Amino acid sequence: GAGGAARGGGAAGSPVLGGENRHFRRDWSTANDIGHKAAARSFADIAAMGAVPTALLLGFATPGDLAVDWVDGLMAGLREECGEVGAAIVGGDVTAAEVITLGVTALGDLQGRAPVTLSGARPGDLVAVAGKLGWAAAGFAVLGRGFRSPVQVVAAHRRPEPPYAEGPRAAELGATSMTDVSDGLVADLGHIAEASGVRIDLRADLLTVPVKLREVGAALNVDPLVWLLTGGDDYALAASFPKNASLPDTWTVIGAVAAGEGVRVDGRRWPGAGHEHFR
């Protein structure tokens, strides 16, 4: 979820630390994929504040026997994701460690707007989402069963595609709060509910489960709605808007803000709301 800081027209995302076997596995993802994903996670944090990503600060710890071509692949992935948003890699410390550890902090430009935070949601606001939900979680489930297909869901886990442009757009549309979905929709909206002192009511019938996720869910005997509600790592954006806001097609209304606390799905608390990486 979003948790960065804004000052002087700029925005800094929370440092993102990725450790081998907790946040990524080299047997599941290429170095290039891991670079893309680390940058994507950081830039989504910036987008959730309503800012445009401008730069990536990098710290990297590595075992001495790590192949140089793996490091080259990682850097290429980071650079390519930076290219997607027109950001630069600045700085970069490399130190020795027993396991690969990647520390990334993104910087952004608020373009004169006030940052969108977690604490501005008000009863009566709409709750909407932009981007994919559940795809990366489905890919994680597939890989965890030892499969490498369907390619679409595995690729979503390996290389997410956050809707970066929708962050600044939401800010322009008057978003009252916003977060990126890194821990899971219910968990990250829970951060908004807590910071804003409100309840968030979601409606399952407004969450469209893609056909591909239905197919994967049937094959793995999993209700795919669970992936949409609790899956992280797609880095979608979830935001609250004034109820009279006119939202573009890129945003889907999935619920509303009410007085109270916590998050409800069809009036009930959702069990096990959080997304755990490889733990």
Description of the molecule:
By secondary structure, the chain is α+β, with helices and mostly antiparallel strands. The chain has 8 helices and 12 strands. A hairpin with a 2-residue loop joins strand 1 and strand 2. Helix 1 packs parallel to helix 2, helix 3 crosses helix 4 and helix 3 packs parallel to helix 7. The chain is globular, with a radius of gyration of 18 Å.
Describe how the helices and strands are arranged:
Blueprint: E1 5-7, E2 10-12, E3 16-19, H1 31-47, E4 52-62, H2 68-85, E5 88-96, E6 101-109, E7 126-130, H3 135-144, H4 151-158, H5 166-172, E8 177-180, H6 185-196, E9 199-202, H7 211-220, H8 224-230, E10 237-241, E11 252-258, E12 262-265
Parallel strand pairs: 4-5, 9-12
Antiparallel strand pairs: 1-2, 2-6, 3-6, 4-6, 7-10, 7-11, 8-10, 9-11
Helix pairs in contact: 1-2, 3-4, 3-7, 3-8
The gyration radius over C-alpha positions equals 18 Å
Give the number of DSSP strands: 12
Number of helices: 8
Overall residue-averaged pLDDT value: 87
- Coarse shape: globular
Low-confidence segments = 19-23, 275-279
Strand content: 15-25%
CATH homologous superfamily classification of the largest domain: PurM-like C-terminal domain
Helix content: 25-40%
Structural class: alpha+beta
**What's the number of structural domains?**
2
